[in-house]
Structures are given as C-alpha cells and as structure tokens.
Design brief:
The complex is a heterodimer of chains A (about 325) and B (about 240). Chain A has 3 domains: about 70 residues, no CATH class; about 80 residues, no CATH class; about 140 residues, no CATH class. In chain A, about 75% of the residues lie in helices and about 0% in strands. Chain A is globular. Chain A is built from 15 helices and 2 strands. Chain B is mainly alpha-helical. Chain B has 2 domains: about 50 residues, no CATH class; about 160 residues, no CATH class. The chains are: A mainly alpha (about 325), B mainly alpha (about 240). Chains A and B meet through helix 1, helix 2, helix 3, helix 4 and helix 5 of A and helix 1, helix 2, helix 3, helix 4 and helix 5 of B.
C-alpha cells in the first residue's frame, strides 16, 4: 500500500536539503538562522510521523515549532542571492521549447486526477493500493515526481541538482509563509481545546435567529468576508469563523455537506480580499506596478464584483450544501 | 469570555501588519493559557497540530518542477501566447484574459503570471493600446486609470476564483488540514476543490460582464472628454492589416 507518510518524508528531505544548501550559502547574511529554520522544519516533518503514531511525545515537536516562530520573530530568517532566470535565459528557453514548457506543469493535475479518481478504487489483494482518504495527496506527491522527471528529461539542465536549487529559490521567496497555513490549523486546534468555538458560538446564538439555516449561512459568509477585510487574509478568518459557525452550526446542527460549506466559505472570504487594502500584495502592489495615481484604483474596480459574488456564494452554499 | 482574547489578538495583529506567523503563534499560546491549559498541554497541542496538518504544506513538492520550467522560460512563453490577443477591444481583451487566468490557475499555474509578469508588461499596454486605437492617443488620464484598474482586477479576480479548483493550493489544503485536524473529519482535497467550481463560474459571469461593459464606459468617458470614437469597423480593418 502506498502511504501518504512517504511523501511527508520526501517533503522533509527537501527542507533538510534546502537547509544544507542554506548553511553553505555565503551570500546569505543570515545563513545560520535560515538554515536552522529549514532544518527544524524538515526534522519536524519526519518526527511528526512518530507523533501521529503516538510513539514519540508531541511536546518536543511543539517546542520545535515554537522555536521556528521565534527564529522568524527575531529576524533570523533571510534569503541568499538566489537570482531568478534572466530575460536572455528565458527568451532562449522559450525559443527552444515553446509550448512544451507547459507540459511538466500540466502533468500535475492530470496525474492527480488519475490517482484520485482512478487508482483510488484499485485494491491489491484485500488492501487498497493507496492509503484510504489520502488518495489526492498521494496523487499530488507522485505527480510532482513524474513532473520533475519529465521536466528534467525534456530540458536537460546542466546540473543534476537544478530542480532542488530552483525549488529552493521559490521556497526562499515564500519564506516563513510556507508554514503559516499549518500554524493556522494548529491555532484552530488550540481554539477548540480552549473553548473559543463554544464562546463565539454562544455569541452568535444571540445574533442568529435560532434555527434559521439561511441566517447561519449568511452570518458565516458575510463574517468570512468582513474578518478578511479587517485582517487582509482569508486564511486567518477561516479558523475563527469555522470554529464559530461553519462547523458547529452549519455542519453539525444542519448537517451540511462539509466540503461544500468550507470551500464556498473560503471563497466568500476571497470576496473580502478583493475589497481590502490590507491585502497589499494583491491590491496595492499592482497599483504601484502600473504607476496609478489612485492606489485604490484596483479595489474600486473590484468592489462592484465582490458584492454580488458574495451574494452568489450565500445562495450557492444555501442551495448546494444542504 | 476571556478565551476570546486570542481571537482579538489575531485580528489586531493581522490588522497591524505584524508578522502573521508570530501573531498566530502568540495567539495560540495566549489562548492556551486563558483556557487553563498547562505548558505541556500547550506544547502538545502545537506538536499534534503541526503533525496532523502537514498535508497543508505538501504543495512544496511542486516547487522544484515549477522553478525548473521557470528557469527555461515559462513566463516568457506565457507572454508570447498572450501577445497574440492584440487585435481585440479593451473590454474584450480583458474578458479573455480573465478566462485564461482562471483556467490556468485552475490547472495549477496560479503562480506563473500575476501583475508583475503579465499585467504590467503586457496586458495593460495591450488594453491601453486598444483604447488608443479607438479614441486616439490623447485619451485623458482618468480613462488610463480606469483601464489600469480594470486590468489589475482581471488578473486578481481570475487568480482568486481559479486557483481554488486546483488541489495543491494553500487555501484548499488549509481547509482540509484545518478541519481534519480540528474536527477529525476526513475531507478529500479534490472534493473540496470541485466545490469551488460554481463560484468560479459566477465570478466569470459577473466580472466578465463588467469587463465587457468597460468598452461602453470608456465610450461615455471619451464622449464626455470630447474625443471622437472610431467605429468598430475601422478597428477591425486596422487589426486585419
């Protein structure tokens, strides 16, 4: 049986390799702190396997995670001089390979679908070929490997380590944000353990017309959008609104389809992202790039789309998820 | 009620634009203490939360191949494909770009283009060029600003409401990671991603219509500015040349 843990180990191995390259990178003024960050992350990925199987204490892992946040908080995480491709490199590549450049990237969704839809049903003996309910993730892992092989054979980069160093370039650009979604998931768990969901739920009971499904959908979607506008980030709003309403009211009480409720709820948050200067990288940076007089120009072009789209999300969730 | 301070911390921290990773960590620790959890219980919660939400970070496996094809000109090839759209009016060009951006994001290419790689060097000059073909070179600043704003919006809306259809995107993996960890559900990422399709269609219908109507808006602005508008036919002829 192919297990999803194999791919977490692959992911951990990539982080550890990135850590090694970072430690050796003289152009990175913060190479020790940065190397420690990626190394801790890689180690945490592998150690986690034993935590999940309950053969190692979770508190050690918790300490490592807090240390990573501490490295970020004290400004120890930096990036080296990993320059992207030059204009000339890109033009030469595009001349040579043309549309074939899209092939490795498009391999990924194709392989994922094959695994999630096709191979998920296959059994070897009495066991399923792919670990149950991780079929898509396994597909993603295999797809990434297949795509790298196709890319490597097709493009024939000079160094066999090219995929790793290119991956490292992108990973350094992402930086600490690579672990943010995981930390938000952790925060959600702490919220639940400390009873935050119950408290927010109690508050919303005062606001919500009791027993109203439409009211619940409306508060969840509009709440996602409003929290996103304030925080500039739908990822931050999701754990809060889901702990308050999405799960207890919409999924548990009204038995909504969880996948539909959460997917549409997240997209309701994205409607908020369209409207907020807090999401600077999406809304303010383009205005600067285009040298606009009015830096709110893109937001003004987006708000009249965001409002009806939020209404659509409320309607879609109400009719499709229940 | 006191445990809600953690929520407040997240909201304030994000709004003050402090480092989100630090904000979230501190909010987690504070919430734990307010919920009367012991130090070990808090550390355990961080450890278990991390271990069970690793699926969120599995997108990292895609980075080596994306980086590799970028090195060999992925962005440049994207630019060359887009440049073939040069004969359209401003609104129609942006309607088509919105669709291209949505579909390519849904196929996992959300990161290849964006404002810096496509809108600034390509989409905006083409959209503005189309307006100049129609109204002459002396179009007023307000019209250029309108075209800029709508060009940026086509890119952002297209990315937001396309990328969620791809399974290996942060938001989808956050959903599955968060609810699987917190509520012990077993959501399939592909299933969650498919539920993003209805909203994607609505987004295309709404924003596409508004982009389509941009041509008429520009006509009215040009009229108000006293510019003569060239008829569509001349446009088509010029494009054919």
């Amino acid at each position: 049986m192919i297990k999803v843990e194999w791919f977490y180990w692959l992911c951990g191995a990539i982080f550890i390799a990135v850590a090694a390259l970072t430690f050796a990178d003289g152009t990175n003024a913060k190479r020790y702190g940065s190397g420690a960050f990626w190394g801790l992350l890689g180690g945490a990925f592998i150690y986690s396997t034993f935590v999940v199987h309950k053969t190692a204490p979770a508190s050690v892992l918790g300490l490592a995670v807090i240390m990573m946040a501490l490295l970020v908080a004290t400004g120890q995480l930096g990036r080296g001089d990993t320059t992207g491709p030059s204009r000339a490199e890109q033009e030469a590549g595009a001349d040579r390979f043309g549309n074939r450049l899209f092939v490795p990237a498009l391999t990924i969704p194709v392989v994922v679908i094959i695994f999630a839809v096709g191979l998920a049903k296959i059994h070897v003996g009495s066991e399923p070929l792919l670990e149950k309910s991780s079929e898509t993730l396994i597909g993603l892992g295999v797809a990434s490997i297949v795509a790298v092989i196709i890319g490597f054979v097709m493009l024939r980069p000079k160094s066999p380590l090219a995929p790793l160093s290119e991956g490292r370039r992108l990973l350094e650009a992402i930086g600490w944000a690579a672990v943010l979604p995981q930390m938000l998931a952790t925060l959600g768990q702490l919220f639940v353990a400390a009873g935050v969901g119950k408290q927010v739920g109690r508050l919303t009971e005062h606001v919500l017309p009791s027993g109203s499904l439409f009211g619940g959908v409306l508060v969840y979607c509009v709440g996602m959008a409003l929290f996103t506008i304030i925080m500039g980030n739908a990822f931050g709003a999701f754990p809060i609104m889901t702990a308050a309403i999405g799960y207890p009211v919409l999924v548990q009480h009204f038995h909504g389809n969880a996948a539909a409720v959460f997917a549409i709820g997240m997209l309701a948050g994205f409607c908020g992202t369209l409207c907020t200067p807090m999401a600077a990288n999406f809304n303010i940076v383009p205005a600067a790039l285009l040298e606009m007089k009015d830096k709110y120009g893109p937001i003004k072009a987006q708000i009249p789309t965001a409002i009806p789209l939020l209404a659509c999300n409320v309607a879609l969730m109400y009719f499709l998820a229940f | 009620m006191l445990v809600l301070l953690g929520v407040l911390l997240v909201v304030i921290g994000f709004a003050l634009r402090l480092n989100p990773l630090v904000v979230v960590t501190v909010a987690g620790i504070v919430t734990g203490f307010l919920g009367h959890l012991s130090v070990i219980a808090i550390l355990n919660a961080f450890g278990n939360g991390f271990a069970t939400s690793r699926s969120v970070t599995l997108f990292v496996l895609v980075l080596p191949v994306i980086g590799l094809i970028e090195r060999f000109g992925l962005q440049e090839q994207g630019r060359r494909l887009i440049a073939r759209l040069h004969a359209l009016t401003t609104g129609r060009l942006l309607v088509l770009y919105l669709l291209i951006r949505q579909i390519s994001s849904a196929l996992g290419l959300a990161s290849i283009n964006g404002p810096a790689a496509l809108v600034r060097p390509l989409i905006y000059p083409m959209a503005e060029g189309a307006a100049e073909r129609r109204f002459g070179r002396a179009i007023p600043e307000a019209m250029r600003e309108k075209v800029k704003g709508y060009s940026a919006s086509a890119d952002t809306v297209g990315q937001f409401f396309g990328e969620d259809i791809f399974v290996a995107i942060g938001s989808i993996l956050l959903i599955t990671g968060f609810v699987d960890t917190t509520y012990h559900l077993k959501l399939d990422a592909l299933n969650v991603a498919l539920w993003a399709i209805p909203t994607a269609i609505c987004a295309y219908a709404i924003h596409g219509t508004r982009l389509f109507l941009l041509d008429r808006r520009l006509d009215r602005m040009a009229e108000a500015a006293g510019l003569t508008t060239r008829p569509d036919k001349a446009d088509a002829q010029e494009a054919g040349r």
